[in-house]
Design goal:
The protein is α/β, with parallel strands linked by helices and 181 residues long. Helix content is 28%, strand content 24%.
Length: 181
């Protein structure tokens, strides 16, 4: 498949105009390569994840987080420049769908709402029209099927996310029905 087609498909789900103004979603590192039959996906384009992708034969890499929010000249040897070296040496493009994907209410932000069976969903910070029932934007709020106390909510969340660093601040309500994240 042409790299341009891969990018077009990504941008249907994560349009660049939805990205936050400070973000650098989009093509991170260009390549001469025009076609790819193997796409790797990673959260962060670290030297380890890019090396692993290349070892598996990736010809194009899609990461969630960008390589850098402020690209820099190669005036030192660091992870940023090691990733650049790996990609340029192997002629593999890197594309990041960061906040351009985060604002899609049908995207990654919705998985927890589905797992918790939240109803009456609302986007916390709308940024524009969406592709489904909700506008694009940051964060979601929704109603639990039944009110729960904080301990019950923590148990529900712990089934899906690591709460080892979670803290509680302020007074705890007796019951929780609407949650936001």
């Amino acid at each position: 498949m042409h790299i341009a087609e891969i990018i077009s498909i990504i941008e249907q789900m994560a349009p660049l105009q939805g990205a936050a103004s400070w973000d650098v979603s989009g093509l991170q590192v260009a390549a001469h390569r025009t076609d790819a039959t193997r796409l790797a996906v990673c959260l962060d384009p670290s030297p380890a994840s890019v090396s692993s992708a290349l070892e598996l034969g990736a010809q194009c890499i899609l990461s969630h987080h960008p390589l850098a929010l402020k690209p820099s000249l190669p005036n030192r040897i660091d992870h940023y420049h090691e990733v650049l070296r790996l990609l340029l040496t192997n002629d593999v493009p890197l594309y990041a769908a960061h906040t351009s994907l985060d604002v899609n209410s049908d995207g990654p932000v919705s998985w927890l709402a589905r797992e918790l069976h939240l109803d009456n969903l609302a986007v916390l910070e709308p940024t524009g029209p969406g592709t489904g029932d909700l506008p694009h934007g940051f964060g979601l709020a929704g109603d639990l099927a039944e009110p729960v106390d904080l301990r019950q909510l923590a148990g529900m969340l712990a089934a899906h996310i690591d709460l080892s660093t979670a803290t509680v601040s302020g007074p705890c309500p007796e019951s929780i029905r609407r949650v936001a994240y």
